[in-house]
Each structure stands twice: as C-alpha cells, then as structure tokens.
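User: Fold this; tokens only.

Assistant: Input:
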Amino acid sequence: MTADSSSSPNSIKKFQGQLISVLADLRLAIILLLAIAIFSISGTVIEQGQSLAFYQENYPEDPALFGFLSWKVLLLLGLDHVYRTWWFLSILVLFGSSLTACTFTRQFPALKAARRWNYYTEPRQFQKLALSTELETGSLDSLAQLLGEKRYRVFQEGDTLYARKGIVGKIGPIVVHASMLMIIAGAIWGAMTGFLAQEMVPTGVTFQVRNILDAGIWAKPQIPTNWGVHVNRFWIDYTPDGNIDQFYSDLSVVDKEGKELDRETIYVNKPLRYRGVTFYQTDWGIAGVQVQLNNSPIFQLPMAKLETNNGSTIWGTWVPTKPDLSEGISLLTSDLQGTLFIYDVKGKLISTVRSGMSAEVNGVTLKIKDIIGSTGLQIKADPGIPLVYTGFGLLMVGVVMSYVSHSQIWALQKGDRFFVGGRTNRAQVGFEREVIEILDRLTEKKDTLDSTGVNVESLANQN
C-alpha cells in the first residue's frame, strides 16, 4: 500500500513533466501553426456558409475538384464552415497549450535568469565573455557615468560593477506569446458566439435577422430580437457608360414600436454597426414595379430574377391588361436606371418605357410609376473581434520589444589593473562598437584595446 501510494504521485508528476515537455517542443508548435495556416487558407478559398445547392453546383461529384473534393467530401469534413469545426478549434486549443507551456518552461525562466546576476570578483571570470579587456588604468565611477549616458542601469559595490540594458528584449517573447493566446481566445470565442446571415430586402420594408447561414453554438444571444432594420431607400449610381459605380442603402435601426435608434447610409466597404452586429452592402436586386392601367389604382407587381443564355441577369413580370387575365404583357429590365422593355404574349418587343412614362398596349394606357429595388445585406456578429484586434496590436508591440538587445557589462578594479567585459544576445557588432567607444572615452587613447590586451581573437570570432 505504501509503495503503491508513493509511486502513483511520482508517476503522475512524471507524466505531467513529459506532457509539458512535448507541448513546449518548438517542432510541435511549428507543425500546429502550419496546420492552422493551411486550414485557414482553405476557409478563405472555399466559400463559407453557403447553401447545399451552392456546393452541389460548384463542387460536383463528377468531375470532382482535384479528383476527390466533391460537395459530399466538403460537407463531411466541415470545409463549408472551417472555423467552427471541432477539429479546427481543437488545433487552436492545442496550439494555445503549446504556447502556454513554452512560456512557462522557457520564457519566464529566461527572464528570471536575465534579472539574476552576480558581480565578477576574479579576473578569470572575464575570460569567458565574448568581449573582454584588461586596462592599466580605469575608474569605476567614470565607467558608471559613461554607461549611464548609454542608458545602462548600473549596479556598483566596492571594486565591482555590473550594468545592463535591454531587459525589455527578454519580456518581448512573453508579450508575443500572450498576444497569440489572446488571438486564439478571440477566434474561439467568435466561432462559438458569432453568426453570419444574408437578407435581400426591398425598399420600404422593415426586417429582422432571420436567414442565418452559419452560427456558433452560443450565438443565440447575439441575434437581435428586440430591434430591426428599416430600408428607407436603395439606389445605384451608374457611370456615364452605363456600368454600376456604387450602390447604396439608407438604413434605420428601429425598435419594436418603430422608433429610430440609429441611421446610416451604407455602401461597399462602409457598413452599419449596431450593438455588435454589422450590416454589409454586398448585393442588390429588383423587387418589383409599380404600374397603373388607365385610371386604376397604382399596384405593385413582384419581379422575378431570370438568367439569360449569355450569363447576364434580368428581372421580369407579367402585367394583365384585361380583368379576366386573358391578355397581358411582359415587362423586362436589367437595372434600376428605369428602362423597361414591353413584350407581347408572342415574345415580340412592343415598346420601351421609363419610370414616369406611359405606353399604349392592348388598348390600355400602361404607366410605370417606379421600379422598386432591393438591397442585399450580409450580416455578421463576431464578439471575438475586439480580443483578436487587441492581440494583433500587442503582437506588433511584442515583436518590436523582442528586437531590443539585452546587453550586460561587468567591471573589476583589482589593484592597479582594471578589467572590463560584456556580452549581448544580438547585434553583436553594434555592442562591440559601443563598448570600444566607452573604453576609448574612458582611457582617452585611440589604441587602448590593442595595447592593453583586448581579446582580439574573440572579437574576430564574433565578427
């Protein structure tokens, strides 16, 4: 009993140590990072959150993309929603665990070691430094003053001196790891709580977010239920040659009573943001046309989207010209510029008409009052974005901090001899020049290093 009970904790500790060692392995971190990059690229290349019909049309079984990637394989692997799959989130968690293990087993000990130092009290200790020299004369006080001018932090005790600068360079990798953990946490939180939706809404209609394409398992609280959006107007600006220049939507956020809470005119790359939900302008269409026959009331007819043989898109509707619906005409248009083409039942072009104009067809006067456009909106909520952006900002700061050199200098006054040496973790040449400049100013001689026993061979090896 005693032997078993004592060996069990040791076995657990041994397993924990091995696990932490594996997680902290740089090779594992690189493999995980490459996997994240590859799957992120796939999520960018493959359209995310589309309908089943979309994937069946664009990723057929015969011929399959690359010989294997059909819509069935794509849906089976979850490549239609990569960033919310259990395996992608598992990779993120594993990579975060690797970063955490590396931080506590390597970066914090490295920082602790950098902050821990000893005075050099024997000349032989200077021999192990990359840069060292022995001077015939010198003053610790003068050296301390010169090092202070170079922004070193100086510690002096008796005949010994220690100076350092750039400790922030040891903190930099920790900041980098912390920022990457923030990015991972933000990505996971966004995947679990965010959603993606699309709506096609005619002018004058108030809507709530209903058409959810993709959502995390905790996304329900993010979907707005106590407020909606009213489309005040949708319009398109055209270039002189008739091409679309930009399309706009004037949107109002309204509460359940219809009170306006916010208002914004959006266009491509200028969305509406309200309470963590973002509305992007992504598409457009023609919802209907308002017509009048003779002196009848104005009525609105829906227009259907039609595909042509050359791949262009038109919208069309049928307008009855007799009460018994025995006769009628077809109205077709390709844009919101206001021109409509009128065809009879045999498909013959009768006339063209614009908004506000009239035409005689089948013995009646057909007047076009207005063409009603519809705005296509992509709606997204990602609560993890602030954390991700903060992580990226911190990452840039950490990278800059990591490039700061951690430099250390020791000095010893031993009788009539003066020993000076130092080392740095990067920018070795720049550090050597700095030390030589300090020693030149200290001795006020140009050839001090060569004449007083500088470790020239060590300098050559470092260069």
